[in-house]
Amino acid sequence: AVQELVDNLLHACHVISLATFLPRLEPCIGVGSSFEGWSHRVEDAVYRVLVRLKPPPGHSFRLQLGTDGELPARHGRVRVKLQCMCKREQLLGDVLCFQHHSYEQVRRHQRPGLLQILCTDSYLDVEKTARWLQLFVRNAWDVIAEQQNCQLAVLPSSRSCQLQLTYDSGRTVNVEIVLGVQQDKLGVFVGSQEAETNLSSTTWLESCALHELLFFRCVARQAPQGSCHLTCLQLLTYLLGDSVLSPAHLKTATMHLLTLLPPSEWCREHLLQRLRDILHYLHRCLQERQLHHFLVGNEQVPRELSLPAAFQAASPLNLFQRLAREPQAQALRELTQLQDQ
């Protein structure tokens, strides 16, 4: 229901944007724990959806990935380039070609383009684009509000569009719309998600959220009925809620074990043993300060995920590489306490 509402909202945004030279919004794709099936508290869940951007007429996107980081934590910038629209101008007469008319000519006859509104130095600006989407969402809500049984509030956010839906029953739902530009046909994209470190407004982060979603769907097709892998994640996320270990660490460990153990070992009767296995796996990773990213340099990743060749050929990426000693010791104590229970 949440995804359908967001799609209706985005469709209204799309209709409004047709008269502009601003990005086109693709239908949303639900990603993250709420759509993978392991969000442990429904009432506190944040429904994260990815909305891919397509360039408007007369523009193209050129993705420039940085080389200073490792996959998949690389930063990228989206260069916006003008494309010739002279043929459309001659045939339809409804536009002036941005590329072959002066800025003053274009400005007098049609609305400003993407470069003037959402870019900084010819690069798509994350913060400007997020503010633009927030404004569009407010306008689009005015169009569809009468058909909905909830109220919408757009919450402050610098790099994404965060919404709070309040239903007539009093229930509230939080939605985060992450904008993305697809890197290739294999589903890797750079997105506007929040970062742990300060980034420039033209920096987008490479993400594997779609491949992670596909992995859980792949597991669901092979797992026995009542498989406990999602329950394991829900329980551990709850038990380690304030831990140094993030939900992403728990998810990564579980994904590794899902490829190491056959599906039959994840039936509900084995729940306690699988919980012990995940805790033991994480304990060993912490001791060795080495937890490898699941999708990078991992030969166990199912072929159905169709990872880019660069991911398959890359060296394993250690998520614990920068883990400081004190947080490491604290996480070990927390895991030991759980294992002793």
TrEMBL record:
Mab-21-like HhH/H2TH-like domain: which residues? 231-296
* Topology of this chain in the membrane: Single-pass type I membrane protein
Name any GO cellular component annotation.
membrane
UniProt-listed InterPro entries: ITPRIP-like (IPR026250), Mab-21_HhH/H2TH-like (IPR046906), MAB21L/cGLR (IPR024810)
A Pfam family cross-referenced in the UniProt record is: Mab-21_C
Does Glycoprotein count among this protein's keywords? no
The UniProt record lists the keyword Membrane: yes
Q: Which UniProt keywords apply?
A: Membrane, Signal, Transmembrane, Transmembrane helix
Q: Where in the cell is it found?
A: Membrane
Family stated for the protein in its record: Belongs to the ITPRIP family.
Q: Write the protein's name.
A: IPIL1 protein
Question: Its encoding gene is what?
Answer: Itpripl1_0
